[in-house]
Amino acid sequence: MLRDWQSVRAEVLRRIHARDWKPGEMIPNEADLAAEFGCARSTVNRALRDIAQSGLLDRRRKAGTRVASNPAARATLTIPVMREEIEGTGRKYGYQLLSRSTEIPPVAESAAMQLPPDGTLLHIRALHLADDRPFALENRWIDPGVVPGVADAHFERISANEWLLQNAAYTHGEIAFSATVAGPADAPLLGCAAGAPLFVTERLTWDTTRAVTRVRILFAPGYQMRTGL
Amino acid sequence: MLRDWQSVRAEVLRRIHARDWKPGEMIPNEADLAAEFGCARSTVNRALRDIAQSGLLDRRRKAGTRVASNPAARATLTIPVMREEIEGTGRKYGYQLLSRSTEIPPVAESAAMQLPPDGTLLHIRALHLADDRPFALENRWIDPGVVPGVADAHFERISANEWLLQNAAYTHGEIAFSATVAGPADAPLLGCAAGAPLFVTERLTWDTTRAVTRVRILFAPGYQMRTGL
DNA sequence: GAGTGGTCTAGACCACGGG
DNA sequence: CCGTGGTCTAGACCACTCG
């Protein structure tokens, strides 16, 4: 008698794990499982939906539920505000504004943000520090037309990262991770040698149909982004 | 009259977005919202649970539901089998086994896998190709004691990646992303210059309490991992 | 057409944890 | 203590899609 959906999930996972139900194979439908487990169908539904979300099950109306044959691993990355990322590991957070100006961005930026190539954006460069040592170098473009009030924010004490979270809304975004080398301009800021390998994140956030901000962050050497699987 | 949980979710998101409910603020309880929306409480529950999972709401029994003040962005990464990642972008997948042997691993590996430092593991090195060009270099250690049958797998035609998915079970794992530079040994295999920046993933998977495999993958220069936000 | 998952409902009980 | 979210139930209708 399995009483709650987490028990059902555990039992289903056990059967998949034990190869009772093999990859690619169909599993019984919800009604049958509910009867077997002695619970309501909605409880089984909740459990199976949860497993399907993790990628281990493939569910389709009428076609039924089958065990995924090549389950792609799914990992949920939590990307906190940089202050919290640093303080969360017990280190002291520091912040330093490098520059703030209104400029015409490189075409790569305006294109990505779907803006005319001759418009101006707010350009912020800042350094985040952990225990007074360089941690990450932020290079950000903000569309002031989409973020009211940003013209009055000077970003000297509070990072654009946090200010935007409090003051700007966004509906969705994209993020990319890659690797690059420290250039001669960036290396001294990050306290590393030119040519050192750097982990990079690039984010682009949207408010419905308009790009809010685009940011590229270079992390000091040794940075790792980790998560469970 | 909001009839389904997705409409409820949309309306709640709209109110958060419109700052009707500000960051850190409490929102009405489920029963009240259900009454207002003209639907059952469970429908509201489903919607709010979904939003909470994305990090925008913070829910606690008795304390109620409040809008997150510093919502950490959450992104779900889908990490497919390498073959599917390459074929999914319309390129031809290629695979080449570089070496396969039984060795005593470096202590870093045995320690991470929580194994005695004098035990042996199966060591696989392989190259994944996209359109006949180097795509990623895989360096993997497998515990044959945890994966029955792995001693008979030669991995000449099928990658360890795929073989393990079909033949080995795992319950959980960890994954880390970072950056490194191409060493003199790896550079020619990846078709790049020594010193080129490489994106790296390191994965460690477990079957309950025993480490199954540890793999480090170096991606050829230019690789990006992207996802929605 | 018919079987399957997706969802809604109304009511109920319970666990947690703030006050 | 007691309000709030977490969950279960039984039944119902519906949408999708396979055959």
Q: Give the oligomer, counting copies of the same chain as homo and different chains as hetero.
A: homodimer
- Helical coverage of chain A, percent range: 25-40%
* CATH homologous superfamily (4th level) name of the largest domain in chain A: Chorismate lyase-like
**Helix and strand composition category of chain A:** alpha+beta
Strand order of the largest sheet of chain A: 5-6-7-10-9-8
* Named CATH topology of the largest domain in chain A: Chorismate lyase
Which descriptor suits the 3D outline of chain A?
Answer: elongated
Level-1 CATH class name of the largest domain in chain A: Alpha Beta
Approximately how much beta-strand content do the residues of chain A carry? 35-45%
Tell me the radius of gyration of chain A: 24 Å
How many domains make up the 3D coordinates of chain A? 2
Would you report the number of β strands of chain A? 11
Keywords (chains A, B): DNA-binding, Transcription, Transcription regulation
Domain HTH gntR-type (chains A, B): 2-70
GO molecular function (chains A, B): DNA binding; DNA-binding transcription factor activity
Protein name (chains A, B): UTRA domain-containing protein
